[in-house]
Amino acid sequence: MEYIIGQRWVSHADAQLGLGVIVEIEQRRVTVNFPAVGEERTYAIDGAPLTRLRFQEGDHIATVSGVELVVTRVDEHQGLLLYTGTDHHDAELTVSELELDAYVQLTTPQQRLLNGHFDKNSDFALRVATFDYLDRQQRSPVRGLMGSRTSLLPHQVYIANEVGQRFAPRVLLADEVGLGKTIEAGMIMHQQLLSGRASRVLVLVPETLLHQWLVEMLRRFNLHFALFDDERLAEIDAGNPFEAEQLLLCSTSLFAGQPERREQVLAAPWDLVVVDEAHHLEWSAEAPSEEYQLVESLAGNSAGLLLLTATPEQVGQASHFARLRLLDPSRFHDLEQFAAEESQYHRWSDMAQQIEAGEIPGDLPEGLDRNAEPAQLIEQILDRHGTGRVLFRNTRAAVSGFPQRLLHRHPLPCPEEYRFSSVDVDSGLHPELPYHDDSWLAFDPRVNWLEQTLKQLRPAKALVICANADTAVALEHHLHLRAGIRSAAFYEGLSIIERDRAAAYFADEVNGAQTLVCSEIGSEGRNFQFAHHLILFDLPLNPDLLEQRIGRLDRIGQQHDVEIHVPYLEGTAQETLLDWYERGLDAFSESCSAGYMIFQRFREALLGHLEQRGEGFEALLSETAEFTVQTRLELREGQDRLLERNSCKPDAANALIDAISERENSDELQEYLEALCEAFGVDTEFHSEHTLILRPSEHMLTGHFPYLRDEGTTVTFDRDKGLAREDLAFLTWEHPMLVEAMDMVHSTELGNAAIGTIKLKGIAPGTMMLECLFTVNCVAPKELQVERFLPLSPTRLLVDARGKDLAHLVPHTRLNELVERVKKPVALAIIKQVQKEVDAKMLLATRQAETRLSDLLSEAEAEMRAQLGAERERLAALQKVNPSIRQEELDHLDYRIEECAIHIRHASLQLQALRLILTT
Description:
By secondary structure, this protein is an alpha/beta fold. Helix 8 (290-301) links the parallel strand 14 (272-275) and strand 15.
């Protein structure tokens, strides 16, 4: 080994020293300066733990002056290396190794291997598996749809896929109550964020729904939204507070009478704005509300916009037009023109029905092929439908799977103690509130009734809901401590972890609670369809809240009829409100999306009778019932059946669900996670089938493993178990734990260099082979999604002594079974002897891989132009007959096609892993 002053060497005993330079040579000692850490080390020449740093053609190097080069030639002059390469401007430069940046990181596999830094063979196998799974994720047609903790319902999956893949989606989600608009919005946001189409999202909701949204987004989609309220805003002093977070959740009322906040939120950049309960945004051409004007301004500044409402047209055609106007003001600019267009939608719907019945209408529009298959004709009509691309609406009638609702009234005598406290509506509906202690439990007949009813229902589980947290806590204490009934409380005063524990205790079928006592807000954001008995300890004044309560159990997937029990005090406001809900609104038999609108219409009369029920109450019930029937009829007749067809295409949805299920029903994910944990020093323990307990250990490779709590995390790979047990983390390939852990493998050196020996019959001992893993390196903006057409495409080569590729003869998994560990001193000695051979074989392997890359790039560009070009042609043709196709979408496709082509052509190979194998 010859040392020359000025040469660059690295210490394989301490790679953190960076790149060293020989500064002094004595007879038996050599001194190396490490500029990166400001240290000098002196070593005995015979045993120095040093390795000569020699970059190869294709390597990226950087100089002390900040110039970056791609090496094209390496020469040697008087013992020093000269690197010739090209910079970012394709200018050719030659630099001496003396000019190299001392902060070099030896992350390339070849450099690490030849410098004596290598990993275990199990880490090498983990790295290969990681790139294989990443590649499969990029190619998957259901990318972005797997990561949600939700049931795979066709209408939700279809909408999420249809909208989530659009550039800057601007749509109105208008499914009926109970069909999961919040879930659809979450799935769309998850897909947009995962794909890179969006990175900053603002969600505006009514104040009463803030907690529900926060919990839903976190528990179902692992989306950590920052909740902004007056208190949070007061804590942020400097700058624009709305630029402090990427995902932000706040109420629309936060900006009422606050012009400064309004300016700040409008000044912040948003990729996607989501507005729940959008029908509350009041609009008229002369006097739009302050909330409407805020959303209108946000809609103008944001590329994407999602509006959610269960009642798109219940408050009038003008209100419906106002929502669509927010989505696309250039398309929906005139109310009269919109009304004229809408009158034609029924014609299209009738035409589709005729075609389904086997009749070809005589007035089939130009451009439609009369000889086409009926399904194809209907598909063309759907494409040309006026609001089909901006409005999605599924109905409970069209989506099967809902249970029946059965009401059980339980009249109880009103105690004397309450007769003097019912002086207003609120205390009449909740007479226990004036009591500041739990003394009311002793005389309120509902308490004893509840105790006896729960005992009669055993072992069936029952969800109890009441309006106030204090009431819920007092009831739960009574049931648990005095009545001996297994119970848990669930209310807003608990932390999310405490709520998880309460919900898990209730969900446990064997040793769990029989009942969960919830407050109004505590019941939001959770679904308990494993129970079918619902006890309403009191009634809310808002029909939407009543529907929300029933909706905890009345959901798709409920296996039994929902038994609704309502205890009430006779002769009080409770009985009056129950009568109005049952006989007027018919709220217990079926869902009514117009419930709040009907309540608003009869509000004053109803409140009067709640204070003092009078003779006109029967007339009020009749009038309400008549109006409710008429409203339901109008909603049903006004439903755009063609729109419903376009809101869920069962065949397409089921194909997506099958693809998701196929990935989930494999053991690959669990096996891969266990390998990850072993590599990073995370302890794993069997919990139950498809469920593991992960715990940090004292021997962790890094101080952090994503989403692993200090006390441990229990994870399940089973969707059904994940839905029933929200205390478990439901892992999919898109869960942040997996995404971030795979990124830790991808972006670090772990497993990128290894050495091993094998015994192979017929091959002479000492024969060297190189196992190489190359991937495509395409640097491109994430939102272009180039990986759809040019994924990582892992290329494995197994080069023998003659440079022949044996990868097809010796699969990677088989090689992992045969390879044996080499002790480090022996491995270092081997590496010093075979450096030139490794260089030669790597050159051969790289040339073979580059030949394959050329074909990959050509195929990728052709595939990209075919897919995006076909979509561009389709949208351009549709734009002529369907004005809802925005020009921005076509312009973006043109831009995306050309940008993708440029980045695909500039893609290169990247060596991701290298294993030196010697036969023994």
